[in-house]
Write a structure and sequence with these properties.
single chain, 1962 residues, alpha/beta, 12-stranded mixed beta sheet, 8-stranded mixed beta sheet, disordered N terminus
């Protein structure tokens, strides 16, 4: 494009405002102002809708969000404390004609985008700088501009000249003197007044590669970064956890808000494309942090002037906010500087602060800047040297302390900056809580100097392998302040001098001048572990000095560098750098959030960074690469079994296959029961609910509820989901609550269990709608595992990177509907309630239910046979010196990891730990398989685990083995470990010996066929061929390694066969109390009370860990790295010390032999045993009738892998399984079997004879499960944390931050006490913790409640795996017993008729378990002509063959007047899936019934829809009444809005959210009583429901059903019967199908793919049921079944999912009856008549029509037509429909009366027919109705020979008319190629010709034979047609007619009577 050249140009160098030289520019400016003033419409700003990984994209996108640019919203002088306001509208002047207007290009058409011209040379005049401008239309890009630096702010953010001077770098145009003109030229297209402060955002700099990249923010007038939330999850660190600021302290400038999880390594932030860092981590990494702590700032904090921050959009970088007015000062101390503070998306907020205000670059700068940055007031920026990580072997972690922190530039990837220490210092200044605690007057905080000095003291006393903890430092501050403050009080009280306290205190203040000297003095005693650097001018000097010393290697022995600058008046600057390799690695990794941690690891795996690690491992083996050894071993073992272990296992496997599974005698069954604890807790829950109801607040009216319903919400883990389904099913709670009948299927249970994932909203919405719809039902909303996902939905919405599952708990459970619903009680259930016990919690402390203590004052409160073994018991096991502890660590493994960490500093330690552990397992498997030299390349602990895993199955005749849990939190690493171990297992030919299972929360279990078969054999009772284990509990007894991935466990229970819990790979993010306890909770167990698990197995020859450590820890780094396994070969004899590094490190043969020799345990039952489940078959009658219970109780009674939980614990660590660690070399291989008995056999090929256990007494490896819990292996860091105790005697882990989502309210808080009860601990956390802004409770105090508590919310807490599930399920049962009141309805309850007349078919459908009919098999079934529907008991029998039936076989027919009076009914309780009439009102139905918030009530439109049909002789015009809320079901023309068609789905659609088939319900006279409310029946699913009404009834139907679609029949059908409605429904549907095929064919969809089915339903169908069949056998005596109520949605979706469904013409179901027997449901499908509720294929039945004239039996008539056309009718016998007895409307609304006014109202049926032209009284009724009624009652007048003559029926051609129960008919069709029964054997007693058409000819009738004297009846529309028919059919040849034998219906001529002629066969 060419730019139009202006007539006048601006002079170059016009740097000052006011020198306007262009009249055109003035004109443009004035026009712009005028347009702005005139504008009255607000132009919406672009909305940021997608997260980008690159930080610069995040920041730029945020700039485009209307809520982020707060500079537009701030009011002058208000400091940003007011709510944001929309920006003023602004309209730019139209650009000159012909100019380029494309975003990102200037008006000359030149590209200005940074990404496009970053590598192009740009001419920058002297005095100009390149800056980046933000365009609202391009949120992801910066536009490059050249600006005179005089108009930009200086170092302090001030002194920018007013005005503007800039050049366009695209076209080269220079001399822009006004930013408005310049913004127009570069096409910024602003919606607000152009200001350089708003739109010039960044300096642009050249990186090391010379590319132009985004640099620091331009700091307009001292503005600072504004924090934004990062991606998902809270900061994983608790080593320096996010702490200590609360309330008003949270949002002040210069510090993270209460939600900020401390920092993130800046090293994770790349500079740009050239950076080698993964782009994956850019978005989740923070900027470097600078800050300021001025007296003015502190005063603001003290005065609590700062507002609570608002939710922000996404990001981790900060947003510089320029001032509102240029003349107004805007410093970081002002309140407006904090307005940008926003709640975090779960991690930290990155702020880079400095004394006045640092001009902070983006953290993505990776190289030295090529231009001069605006520097901080304290000096030049500090450059991070290149190759720092490579030289130092770790990233230094710099913690900002006091005062100013300089700006860092250069190689930021190799350094991590965190504000956590700064946060701690400032939080320690707050004494409000302490003031309340001690009641002290005017307390003074600790000085900055004293804080720093105490920090130095703390660092000095840390051991070389210790990592600093923020909680420790806080307690030091607290003790110091307390001592000094109490001394002040004593001095004041005694007025006497006191001695100087032992620790520095505020009594003797430390001055700034003394501080460096005192700090250096303190550090002088620590052997250079702490190095102090004093700066004369600024911290920049000290940081530069530190970097220099690091590069020179002079800080090799230094772990901490303290940098102090005390040059400022009355203030200090300080920071602390962690340079120790061990500490820096742990701290830097702990600062990563879970999402960042996963991204970092994924990046290292994807980019191949781990290849060097793999290459290193391949060089460890002197014999060559391990893979080479594996291949060699594999080749040698081909064709034969190379080890005794293999031989034994294969022999056992073969014996199992051939002889069946032998019985395991090591178990004894326990009777099922509710444990006393669970019953007590259930009763406490009920008591709390009753107390809420009894209170005066009237928050719960228990008297108004009739029943109980519930929904259990669980984390999105498939295993947890299946596990919960099992518990709910097994408890019987659905039956107890009356929610289901008899058998409960999986689909029914699934309705009550909700996975909180992206698909949860639909089901939860259904739950809410159900609660609204059923105000008399009390809904218990159970939130299990309630400590998971407490992310605020607002934060999640802003930060979508927080994970797909984040925020759902808040979004669903805390929604307004749940809070306000008076019939919903929310029960939170968790083992770790700490995050729900904050100052802002919604749960009242009075509504907390804690698991009761088992003992009180030495008395057993709840006697039980099992003892719970939890975290405290595990810790106790480490304190007994005479036994092996159950908590251990592996020093050899830790030493290897530490050494490799130094060799590979660029790799995350999780990667290294995983590779090392997998290598150890691989080497151990090789060693056990015969490669004994590999024992040197694994740890003793791993070898013990592997030996026990492989040898345990040999000890049990059933092959019971043990489980090894390998916890790998990072999913990519878990997948890698799985692949590697599976590969090694395959090469070692061990695939048949143990399974390796990858457990991922997002997917189900995958178990090999061999092991599935083994599980079935193991438990003997599983017969279902399709059974597969779906939970970890179902792996009971299976030898396996379970690789358990996922950042957090989601409540999965583990089987009793769990023996080893390998947690060596859990990362540092677990160092908060919740995360740590839930990891250790995986091993929680119930043990037999008679056992003594805490003692552990005795050991006689145990090596001491001290000596074991001496073999590794003191060795040279390289030696340990390269020869780590070799240290195990040193044969030192050791005694066990208190540092329990491994329970298995060396066990004597005596210990080995006894460890498993006497194992006993309860015999497990089969999966889901005792009741009929949907997946596995029942496993044994011994478990029938199990009482409700939870996983632990189930474990106690059955313990099978398939569904039983781990009540009985798995065996304790098996001493036998470990190698004798005193013999760490090949000596193990040659040890005799008596010395080394690995569970009775040696894994070494050198001792095959020892591999055979004593045959007389095989012991099951699971037998100790009831007596000993599993062994837990921990990382050394975590082990030390768990086993250490604090000053109060509690484990140190309890003093950790309770959860990532909360923070301490103050650093000055008392420690937890050992004597605290659970209630007191809750009150402690409620006082001393506050939620972070990302927490869902963060804003709960602003909801207007006085107390802030929700009245119907409870919290149940108890230790993990203790039985909480069973307790609350029991609570539901006992609550239901209080509330149950039945709501019933009368439904027809009649058994099918004519069952004894049903012939025995030649072919039966024997596939009894098929959910859908097999098309080929179904075609072979004969059609059953006999009617079985009891409503047709008085209808003519249809004969299908020559039969002789006695009269008494049918029973006595009822009188017509008794048909509806005496029909048998039953009272049934309405289920939640019932259809309702207009009297049903519930909140849930409001929207369905027309109370839609988006539409006005009754708002609907009338649409005409016409189509032609030849049979009717004219065009048919129908009318649709379509509510606005239902218009989406239809297609309208774009021009006139005319109705074109009704939308139809595709056959291939598989969505479970809607019903594909439109439902048509013809109705008359039932506007009030018709069951048209299908909302509950459809279970809330979307469906299309059309009421088909007559024209005269339309107004009244519309009044009662305003939100229903109505099809209004033409007025000509006002007196028609149901046949007319059916006829028009079908024809309309086919016509619509053709229209939809045409419409969608244009979209590329094939015509045959359009869904061709519709549903035609009676208006009295109330409920639907399904039969659950227990396929014990195909013979009827083995056949058992049960029927339950289901939703219509379930039935429809099941039928719609049937394969080959489009081949069926009609589908229906049984009518329900309580008398239904096995015969009716034995065969799942029948080919017979269908009634009442049919699914019609309008495509196949195109040429088969309903008879539009019919009133009665039109469905039977249509069924026969369809069958004769060769089409398939299928009845699903396992489905049934209940029909409500409605005594008004329907066909009874047709009253036959005389037209003569003096005649009686009632007319006898005999008078419905008269002779033509007679004086008979004419009747006011349709002719067809008169005919049908007459034939039903008086057909014997026409067919005297047919009375009770079943062998000689009446031949009925092309129609079925009811001739009464005493006359049988035989139906034949005259259509060509139709299917008819063979009539050659029949001699008919009559012939009925009804409105016969041209297909009926004389030749056709001559095929049939009639009795002599048989009668004929010909029915036609008029007398002329009657005569023509007689002639055309040549009837007079065989039939004799008389004049008096002609009749007509008793209608007037205008009513078009029917005429019929009778005759007699000659």
């Amino acid at each position: 494009m060419n730019q139009r050249t202006p007539s006048c140009r601006l002079k170059m160098g016009n740097s000052y405002a006011g020198q306007l030289k262009s009249t055109r520019f003035e004109e443009v400016l004035h026009s712009s102002i005028e347009a702005s003033l005139r504008s009255n419409s607000l132009v919406p700003r672009p909305v940021f809708s997608q997260l980008y990984l690159e930080a610069e994209q995040q920041l730029s996108a945020l700039e485009g969000s209307s809520r982020i640019d707060n500079e537009e919203e701030e009011e002058e002088g208000e400091g940003g404390l007011e709510p944001s306001c929309p920006p003023n509208p602004y309209q730019t002047h139209l650009p000159p004609e012909g100019c380029c207007t494309v975003d990102g290009f200037c008006q000359a058409g030149k590209d200005l985008r940074l990404v496009s011209i970053s590598n192009e040379p740009i001419d920058v005049p002297a005095g100009f700088l390149l800056v980046g401008a933000k365009a609202p239309g391009l949120p992801d890009h910066l536009l490059v501009c050249a600006v005179d630096k005089r108009f930009l702010p200086d170092d302090s953010g001030h002194n920018a000249l007013l005005g503007f001077s800039g050049n366009c770098v695209g076209c080269g145009k220079k001399g822009f003197c006004y930013f408005t003109e310049f913004s127009n030229h570069i096409n910024l297209k602003l919606t607000t007044q152009p200001k350089k402060q708003k739109h010039l955002k960044y300096y642009l700099v050249r990186n090391a590669q010379g590319a132009l990249t985004k640099g620091p923010l331009i700091c307009w007038k001292g503005s600072e970064f504004r924090g934004r939330p990062t991606t998902a999850g809270l900061c994983s660190s608790s080593l320096f956890p996010p702490l200590d600021i609360s309330g008003p302290l949270a949002a002040f400038s210069g510090d993270p808000t209460p939600g900020t999880s401390p920092s993130i390594p800046t090293g994770a932030q790349p500079a740009g494309p050239a950076s080698g860092h993964p782009p994956l981590t850019i978005a989740t990494s923070p900027a470097v942090f600078n800050g300021k702590d001025s007296p003015k700032h502190q005063q603001l904090v003290k005065n609590k002037l700062l507002a609570v921050t608002r939710p922000s959009a996404l990001g981790i970088l900060s947003n510089s906010g320029p001032p509102k007015k240029r003349h107004k000062g805007w410093s970081p101390e002002s309140p407006s500087a904090t307005e940008g503070g926003y709640p975090q998306g779960g991690r930290s907020r990155a702020k880079y602060e400095n004394a006045v205000m640092s001009c902070v670059p983006q953290a993505s700068l990776a190289g030295p800047a090529s231009v001069t940055f605006p520097v901080v007031a304290s000096g030049e920026p500090v450059s991070v040297p290149d190759n720092l990580l490579k030289i130092c072997k770790a990233k230094p972690v710099i913690f900002k302390g006091h005062g100013n922190f300089p700006y860092l530039c250069g190689n930021l990837n190799d350094v991590v900056v965190s504000p956590l220490l700064h946060t701690c210092y400032q939080s320690s200044q707050s004494l409000s809580r302490l003031h309340e605690q001690y009641g002290a007057p005017t307390p003074q905080p600790i000085s900055e100097e004293m804080q720093l000095l105490l920090t130095v003291y703390y660092l000095v006393q840390l051991a070389a392998d210790q990592v600093p903890l923020m909680e420790d430092l806080e307690q030091i501050f607290l003790r110091s302040w307390r001592e000094s403050y109490l001394m002040e009080i004593r001095q004041y009280q005694q007025a006497a001098p006191q001695p100087f306290p032992p620790t520095p205190s505020a009594v003797a203040p430390v001055s700034s001048a003394q501080l460096p000297w005192l700090a250096g003095l303190a550090a002088s005693s620590c052997n250079d572990s702490v190095h102090v650097i004093e700066c004369a001018y600024s911290l920049a000097e000290g940081l530069s000095e530190m970097f220099r010393l690091l590069i020179e290697g002079k800080l090799a022995k230094t772990n901490y560098v303290v940098i102090i600058c005390a040059c400022r008046n009355s203030a200090i600057d300080s920071c602390i750098a962690v340079t120790g390799k061990h500490q820096a690695r742990i701290l830097s990794e702990s600062l990563l959030s879970p999402a960042e941690y996963q991204k970092e690891v994924t990046y290292e795996l994807v980019t191949g960074r781990v290849d060097s690690l793999g290459a290193f491992f391949s060089t460890l083996c002197p014999e060559g690469d391990i893979d080479i050894l594996l291949d060699k071993f594999h080749q040698e073992s081909q064709g034969h079994i190379s080890s005794s272990l293999t031989a034994a296992s294969v022999t056992k496997s073969a014996s199992l296959d051939v002889g069946g599974a032998p019985a395991c005698t090591s178990y004894s069954l326990e009777p099922p029961h509710i444990r006393p604890f669970q019953l007590a807790v259930a009763q406490k829950l009920l008591s709390h609910v009753c107390s809420i109801a009894d209170s005066s607040t009237q928050n719960l009216d228990l008297g108004s509820f009739e029943k109980v319903d519930f929904l259990i919400c669980i984390p999105p883990s498939e295993v947890t989901y299946q596990q919960m389904l099992f518990h709910v099913w097994h408890s019987g709670v659905l039956l107890e609550l009356g929610l289901e009948k008899e058998c409960v299927s999986k689909q029914q249970v699934e309705q009550h269990v909700l996975k909180l994932d992206a698909n949860a909203q639909t089901k939860f919405k259904s739950f809410l709608q159900n609660s609204f719809q059923n105000p008399h039902t009390l809904f218990i909303l159970i939130h299990d595992h309630a400590h998971w996902d407490l992310v605020s939905s607002a934060v999640h919405n802003l930060c979508s990177q927080s994970g797909p599952s984040a925020g759902w708990v808040d979004r669903l459970l805390n929604c307004r509907e749940v809070k306000e619903a008076p019939n919903i009680v929310t029960l939170h259930v968790t083992s770790f309630p700490y995050a729900l016990q904050t100052q802002h919690t919604l749960i009242s402390p009075y509504n907390e239910i804690h698991w009761p203590a088992s003992h009180s004052d030495g008395m057993d409160l709840y006697p039980e046979s099992k003892k719970y073994f939890g975290l405290s018991e595990f810790i106790e096991s480490t304190l007994s010196g005479h036994s092996l502890p159950l908590l251990r660590y592996d020093s050899s493994f830790e030493a290897m990891v530490t050494a490799l960490g130094k060799r590979f500093p660029h790799l995350h330690s999780a990667v290294i730990r995983t590779f090392v552990l997998v290598q150890h397992y691989a080497a151990a498997m090789m060693a056990v398989s015969g490669l004994s030299q590999m024992k040197s390349y694994t740890s003793v602990e791993t070898l013990e685990i592997t030996q026990n895993l492989l040898n345990a199955p040999k000890q049990c005749p059933c092959g019971h083995g043990l489980m090894v849990l390998l916890r790998v939190p990072c999913s990519p690493l878990a997948a890698l470990a799985y692949e590697r171990l599976a590969h090694v297992r395959a090469r070692l030919a061990l695939e048949q010996h143990f399974e390796i299972i990858l457990g991922n929360p997002s997917s189900g279990l995958t178990v090999g066929k061999h092991f599935v078969k083994q599980l079935k054999q193991m438990w003997q009772n599983i017969e279902d061929a399709e059974w597969r284990p779906q939970t970890y509990l179902e792996l009971e007894g299976l030898p396996c390694i379970l690789i358990f991935s996922g950042m957090d466990p989601h409540g999965e229970s583990l089987p009793r066969s769990l023996r080893y819990c390998d947690l060596r790979l859990i990362n540092s993010s677990c160092l908060v109390r919740t995360a740590l306890e839930q990891e250790l909770g995986l091993a929680a167990y119930f043990v037999s009370s008679e056992g003594s698990p805490e003692k552990g197995p005795r050991s006689e020859g145990v090596e001491s860990d001290a000596e074991k450590l001496s073999g590794t820890d003191n060795e040279d780094e390289e030696l340990v790295t390269e020869g780590c396994p070799s240290e195990k070969r040193s044969p030192v004899k050791r005694e066990r010390s208190c540092s329990h590094d491994s329970a298995s490190s060396g066990l004597s043969s005596k210990a080995s032999g006894s460890a498993l020799g006497d194992e006993t345990s309860a015999q497990p039952g089969g999966p889901w045993q005792g009741e009929r489940a949907w997946s596995p078959q029942p496993c044994g009658p011994s478990e029938e009738g199990r009482a409700p219970g939870d996983k632990q109780r189930l474990r106690a009674s059955q313990g099978p892998p398939s569904g039983v939980s781990r009540h009985s614990p798995g065996p304790a660590p098996q001493p036998d399984s470990g190698l004798k660690t005193s013999q760490r070399d090949v000596q193990v291989q040659t040890t005799s079997s008596s010395q080394l008995s690995f569970l009775g056999s040696s894994s070494s090929s050198a001792a095959p004879a020892a591999s055979t256990p004593a045959p007389q007494a095989p012991r099951c490896s699971m037998a100790k499960a009831c007596r000993q819990p599993p062994v837990v292996f921990l990382p050394k860091l975590v082990y030390d944390m768990v086993t250490a105790t604090d000053s109060g005697g509690l484990p140190k882990a309890t003093s950790l931050l309770p959860s990532h989502s909360v923070m301490w309210a103050s650093s000055f808080r008392p420690p937890l006490s050992k004597t605290m009860t659970s209630t007191e601990q809750s009150l402690y956390y409620r006082q001393w913790t506050v939620p972070r802004p990302s927490h869902m409770d963060y804003g709960s105090r602003a909801e207007g409640r006085v107390d802030g508590f929700h009245p119907r919310r409870l919290l149940l807490s108890g230790p993990p795996q203790i039985g909480k599930t069973g307790a609350y399920l029991q609570f539901l049962s006992i609550l239901s017993r209080m509330l149950v009141r039945l709501t019933e309805v009368d439904v027809y309850d009649e058994e099918e008729i004519n069952i004894n007349l049903q012939e025995e078919p030649d072919w039966r459908y024997l596939q009894l378990g098929d959910p859908w009919p097999d098309l080929e098999l179904f075609k072979k079934l004969p059609f059953d002509y006999i009617i079985h529907d009891p409503k047709y008991e008085d209808a003519s029998l249809i004969c299908s063959h020559h039969q002789s039936v006695k009269v008494e076989d049918r029973g006595a027919p009822r009188r017509p007047e008794d048909l509806y009076v005496r029909r048998h009914t039953a009272r049934m309780r309405l289920s939640k899936y019932a259809a309702y009439n207009t009297y049903h009102h519930c909140e849930q139905c409001r929207q369905y019934l027309g109370f839609h918030p988006c539409y006005q009530l009754y708002e609907s439109t009338l649409h005409a829809f016409a189509f032609s049909y030849s049979m009717l002789g004219e065009e048919v015009q129908l009318h649709f009444i379509i509510p606005k809320s239902k218009e989406h079901h239809f297609v309208f023309s774009q021009t006139g809005g005319q109705l074109e068609s009704m939308r139809l789905p595709l056959v291939t659609d598989k969505s479970q959210e809607y019903i594909k088939s439109p439902t048509f319900t013809p109705t008359t006279g039932r506007h009030e009583h018709g069951l048209f409310n299908l909302y509950h029946a459809m279970d809330g699913a979307s469906h299309l429901h059309v009421l088909v009404v007559k024209e005269y009834e339309m107004p009244v139907y519309k009044k009662y059903w305003p939100n229903h679609i109505m099809l209004v029949l033409p007025s000509v059908f006002n007196s028609a019967g149901v046949g007319a409605a059916h006829f028009l429904i079908k024809e309309l549907s086919y016509h619509n199908l053709e229209l939809e095929r045409t419409r969608q064919e244009e979209l590329g969809i094939k015509p045959q793919d359009i869904w061709p089915f519709i549903v035609i339903s009676d208006d009295s169908c109330v409920m639907w049921n399904v039969v659950d069949v227990d396929g014990g056998g195909e013979r009827s005596r083995e056949f058992s079944w049960s029927e339950r109520n289901v939703s219509l949605k379930y039935i429809m979706q099941h039928i719609e999912a049937a394969p080959n469904i489009t081949h069926y013409a009609l589908i229906g179901m049984r009518k329900w009856s309580s008398k239904t027997g096995s015969r009716e449901v034995h065969e799942p499908f029948s080919r017979c008549h269908v009634h009442d509720f049919i699914i019609l294929n309008v495509d196949l039945t195109q040429n088969v029509q309903y008879n539009q004239n019919r009133f009665l039996c039109d469905d039977v008539d249509f069924n026969l037509r369809v069958h004769s056309a060769g089409l398939l009718l299928c009845r699903f016998n396992r489905f049934s429909v209940m029909k409500k007895q409605i005594v008004v409307g329907g066909h009874r609304s047709f009253h036959i009366t005389s037209k003569a006014p003096d005649c009686p109202a009632a007319v006898a049926p005999a008078q419905y027919v008269c002779a033509p032209d007679s004086k008979h009284a004419l009747l006011a009724a349709p002719a067809q109705l008169l005919l049908e009624k007459f034939l039903q009652q008086h057909s014997r007048r026409f067919f005297p020979l047919s009375l009770q003559n079943r062998g000689h029926p009446v031949l009925s051609v092309d129609c079925y008319l009811n001739l009464g129960p005493q006359i049988s008919v035989c139906y034949v069709s005259s259509r060509p190629h139709s299917l008819n029964i063979s009539c050659s054997d029949f001699r008919f007693s009559g012939l009925l010709l009804y409105l016969c058409d041209s297909f009926v000819g004389a030749s056709f009738l001559k095929k049939f034979h009639f009795l002599k004297g048989a009668t004929l009846c010909v029915i036609c529309q008029d007398r002329n047609s009657l005569r023509q028919t007689v002639v055309r059919l040549e009837l007079e040849d065989q039939w004799q007619f008389r004049l008096r034998d002609e009749f007509q219906t008793a209608n007037a001529k205008e009513d078009r009577p029917l005429f019929f002629l009778t005759g007699r066969h000659i």
